[in-house]
Amino acid sequence: MSDPNSKKRKGPGEAPNPAKRPRFPQRAQAYQISTTPTTTAYPDGEINVKSFLNSHQNEIKSLENAMRAAKKGLSRRAFQDVPRELRRRTASHNPRRVPNRLRARAHHEAKEDNTPISRGTSGSGIGKEKKKWLRKEGIEKSRKGWEDRKRRREEKKRDDKDTGEAMEGVEVEKDTPATTKQPAKKAKRKFALLATPETPPSRFRRRQRDKTWLPTHIWHTKRARMTLPTEPLWRFAIPLAPAVKAYRLTHRAATMRGAVAWDMSYVSTISLEGVETSIVRLLKALHFSQETEDDPWQERGKAKKWKKGTRMWEGWLYEREGKEPKGVAPVTVIWSVTEEGSTKRKAFIRIHPCAFLQLWNEVIRIAKVQKPAVTVEDLRFEIGSIEIMGPGAAETLCSILHPSSASESSSPQALWPSLASVTDPGVLPPGALLAFPISDPRLRDPPRASQIAQDAESQVSFMETIAMWPIDGSQPASAIFDRNARLAAARSLPSQKSINRRKSTEGDFGEYPPSQQTDPQIPMLLYVSQKSKSWTILLPWKCVMPVWRGIMRYPLSTGGNPRFGGLKERRQVYFERSVPSFPFDYPGCEAGWGWELQERAVREHEWTKRPKGKRIEWSTIDLDSGRKGELGDPWACDWERLVQKEGGDVSMNGTEDRTTQSSLRQWPSRDAREVLAGRPISPEYLSILHLFTVKISMVQRGTPTTCARIYRLPTNNTELRSKWLSLLPSANSSSRKMAERKTQPTSDQPLPEQIQRRDLARSLLEPPLVRNGPPKAGEEDYPVVPDEEELIGFVTTGNYNLAEGMPTAVANLVLHRVIEKSDDWKGLDKERRVCIVREAGRTIGRLATWETPPATMSEDNPADSAGGDAPEAIALAQGALEELTRDILESCIQNIIHSTAISCHRTEKQLRMQSAATSAESLALANLELPSQKNSQSNTQPSLPKAETDAALYENGRVFLKGNPLKTTPEIICPHCKLPRLMHPMMGKGMQQPDLTREYCMLYPWVQRPGHDVYGNPFPTDMTKTKKERELLKQQQKAADNQSVGTPGSQDTDMNAGDGTHKLNTGGKPASYIPWHTCPKCKRSLLITRFAHHLDKCLGISGRQSSRNAMAKISGVNGNSSGVGNTPIGSRLGTPAPGSQGDGPIPKSKAKGISPVKNLRDNADDDEGENDTPEKKKKKTKSSYVKKADREKMAKEGTPSGTLKVKLKTGNPNSERRDSNMSEKRDRESESIDPEGAPKAKKIKLSIGKAGSPPAPTPTTQGSPGAS
């Protein structure tokens, strides 16, 4: 007997296996809809619509969310709801690898799928592999240590308690000399010390022993690659780059759409406090901003606003001592707003952390000698910052940085929302600065999109704000300069849990909670940088994270969210703008030199850890002319080889880094441009190695990389110099390339075999052709790189520039290798700006050009300029403006042509695709067999239509295209009438004669013909013609209409001529066509030339009676009338209903101007009336008036005036086209039919001629079918 507990056999009562379980089963929690009680919706038994809708709003949204969740649950697993940058490799089968919010769902799915879940060995209490016991033993030791410390604390408390009980009866003298405290000595004044970071929580304390975490460190560790824990950068753990690919995404977000944000809290802040004159002397001693064209110490323009505290200033600080001061770093200086009744001022100096210690020592040394003294504070761990750039940066900040309180209309809080439409910070005033307190962004989470006004009035107001910038006069003192305000804001931040509870209990569903007086007031200072084109926000250190989360969650108007960047992305943005980045591109200063030494060690380490077979052997590099091995240190920008000695030779010793660094000077770009333009220079400058930054643009192929060598053109080898100059592209190179492209065969089909043999034999017998163009890299006659004597610099940053669409680089050149040592120095010409770039480890050089970065424009208005000390304007070369204008016009025209061609190509391809689908569908429907009655009674299903053409396949109601529709579909088929369309107009420009044996769609191409519209109709130009000329034109047009068939707007497309051809008309109107219009009152159709005159009379707005009516109305308004209102004299008080005056029902022909309501009422009265006899229709008699021209004609012919002239109108078999357009005439004829159905008698027109005229012949065709 089988075991009942056995799993191999089923018991007799067990049911068979159920159906196969679906892969994604429905989850019950997706349909749990939370409801809200509706007790408040019916006060006093009455329904309040607003309260009723609010009470059910939660249920409706929950229902929509449940439907959305149910739909998504059928096709997605838990780990697929995690963003790609946060996914883990094992998340598909390990529920512990997904976030907590999805972990329960992942467990449920794994259980349903029968996925085995094993306990991981990472972070679960034990170690990995053979060293598990190490981690286990460490955990055990820590547990025992914790227990020992707890036991000792308890024993200490017990001892203190026993000691207190033993001393209860002992009296202690309060004024004993032993217990009296001695007065503390006054501490000697000390200068500020370096700040230390706040003690982190115990669980993170060991990780921050040698470094400091940024406020957003935990957020970044899940999404970015950080610096190594053992190798912090500038004593900070800094994000290097996002974990996903972001090079192109960063370029698009920073330039085209979106925004990129960085946590810049690692930037150091130094606070200066004291009298304004002392702070000014301190900054002047550090030679602040002496390299810029604008003077920050003048008392006008931007300088005055900067010292007032409403602007910021960017510039370099230099060492105090030395004949030629050495640059320290670029800084940003911000003054506090002057407070009333206070003689002291405060200022912030923002500097990169790599140069902080050097500047700190200089500031402390100078502050000691200032009188009155200047107080210096280190605020590195008290003030954090966020930098954001991109077109969507302004709208993001306007939504997240919400002012905590309203103020005046000209205050920064009031004007801040209007800046949401700014996409380029360059439109704002230079160095614009705003400071106001903001509320906690977590109270307004999730953030909503900023309201960007697009109307003209808002745009005008915005332009006025930018032009006037009223913030300069209303900027209050910022609380971020006050330590107490910063600490109060950080301490008053509520926890996330309390904020969530407040959101759930306060306010309506979906609305932000109302503000309270206890909400934190976060001091904030924001400024705009013109150099980096970015927005920078200064906040207290602990308030950075709430603002950062809000920025990352903001929904941009262009779609998506702002991106975050690391150190590499920040360097990339500067590189794409061809702007040097500090400290990477400044090897002439101490911070840049330290970065260079650090990068050398990293590159050498990467090269060393590679296998010998996969790394470059530097000693085997052949540079031709007997030169072996790489020039200098292959892993470095070897500036040591360029240091001059007294004898003029080059130092080959690269180990003395300190000596080399002291001999380097980073030269400002402004001085470099002036010297290269021809300003004389003293020989003392050439005794020191001056470096200046340039931009490298490649002329040939190749991408420059870091540490690439830069050579000038050979100066001692004329032949080699000419070879390199021959590689420069000439003016006719582009036209030559275009000609070569045109001469090449465009067909992809191979040539016949005999032609291929003939070409091969000809190529073997003919001598080799001499190449006309320059040699290419790798060929024998390609020029070699110059000697070491021509080395002028190194590339510090190089890559493919997405902004310019070509490889570029930022490099540093040596001054004494670029300029000539001569007394008549006149500057560099264009040829001497050509250089040769060779990458480290390569033997081939590439031709390039270099130029200094462009000078920044003066930030002050012309009235605020520096006056006579300002440099003279540089005149443009002759023809430069014409060349620039021509290039701009050519670029614009090329863009217009390109966009037009692309649009036409896309439209044509869509029409061909639609035509292919229409043809296949028509063929399938034509071949479809309709089910017969016998088959319809049976259960057999009809066969699905299927058809195939050369261009498409129709199957089961779907169309599949075959190949390129531009090649497979020769013509365009109309999807409505299924007829081919004409591809060319039939008259005017570009006309072609169509195939008249085919029938075409009535949608004709537009016509381009002088004097005609796009439909081919002529413009009305015959207004001056006489009546006889117009009658003649009508007869000619009538004769032409009898020969044509149909018009573009008619439905007579099935009429064929006798020879089987279709005659096509481009326009449906004659040459004498004049538009007509229908009167809205009497419904008469009149020519447009007489419509205005008729309208005056029909509506009664002209003539004597209309003026009388107007006067009567005026008198009625003034109170001079008889008191019957504004009714005109002679009219009734009200319009009587039809038939109310005893007139009987109005005939149908007379009721055209009556409203439909009155007409219905009249019909009802007719049905209930006493007299059911219809009224006899009144006939309109024609006047017997004879025109003067006819009377003169009859007088000449001698026609008597007493005879009766009868005119019969008979039908014309060729007037069908005219009759089809006379629908109103048919309606009037249908009304003339008698009730018995008998047709009405023929219409006969009678006219009486003059006496003596012969009698008219008696009609004999009264019964003919054509009579009418």
TrEMBL record:
Provide ranges: composition bias, Polar residues.
Answer: 29-41, 1039-1054, 1259-1268
What are the protein's GO molecular function terms?
zinc ion binding
Q: Where in the cell is it found?
A: Nucleus
Q: Where is the Pop1 N-terminal domain?
A: 52-274
A GO biological process of this protein is: tRNA 5'-leader removal
In this record, what's one Pfam family? Answer: Sgf11
Q: Which PANTHER family match?
A: RIBONUCLEASES P/MRP PROTEIN SUBUNIT POP1 (PTHR22731), RIBONUCLEASES P_MRP PROTEIN SUBUNIT POP1 (PTHR22731:SF3)
Q: Which UniProt keywords apply?
A: Activator, Chromatin regulator, Metal-binding, Nucleus, Transcription, Transcription regulation, tRNA processing, Zinc, Zinc-finger
Basic residues bias spans: 86-106
UniProt entry tagged with the keyword Metal-binding: yes
UniProt-recorded name of the protein: SAGA-associated factor 11
What Gene Ontology cellular-component terms does the record carry?
Answer: nucleolar ribonuclease P complex; ribonuclease MRP complex; SAGA-type complex
Domain POPLD: where? 534-639
